[in-house]
Amino acid sequence: MWTHAFGDGDPDVERRMNRPENELPTALPVNRLLARTPEVAVALVGLQAYTTGVAFLLAARARGVAGPEGESRLNDLFWGHRSGPRFLLGVEFADGRRASSLGLHGSAGDLVFHPGAGSGGEASVDQEWWLSPLPPDGPLRVIARCPELGLAETAVELDGAAIRRAGEAATELWPYEPRQDPPLEPPLPPDVPSDSWFAR
């Protein structure tokens, strides 16, 4: 998705920008509740480990569409359609490397951390996330914060060694080949009558 935006021509970084298309991941039976209040719950669902990183779904659910003051529950906080409060998500490796949703395009040093596809609205959001490289042995901390949803800063720990082993066991379907995206060309102008305002 962002390969050309900040891969800077480094083949290793470009390869790790998204989940590899030449692999089948190893599924990890890990669903973890990240945060919960009487009105909101956020969980990590369905970890998928690849040789270059791990993908997971962030699932958020709100009991009602709006809070007591009529503020929005999930849509604006997750998708960031306007400036203001956001749902914050971060990761920290056992060796101290870290990245968050506040980072420049989701990368920090050699870490790649960014959202992918997602869906939802005011009461339900499912958002894919990609983290690369695979974590080292030790705890992989996932941190969340969203006071607007009543979620204080909280963290859960995942087993970095188990994620790494799972990624190393991913199935390579065929050798990796860099994508050769064709150069973008400007679209052809529409066919309009010569007497049209748009033809002038």
TrEMBL record:
Domain of life: Bacteria
Biased composition (Basic and acidic residues): 12-22
Pro residues compositional bias, start-end: 181-192
Region feature (Disordered): 1-22, 171-200
Protein's name according to its UniProt entry: Uncharacterized protein
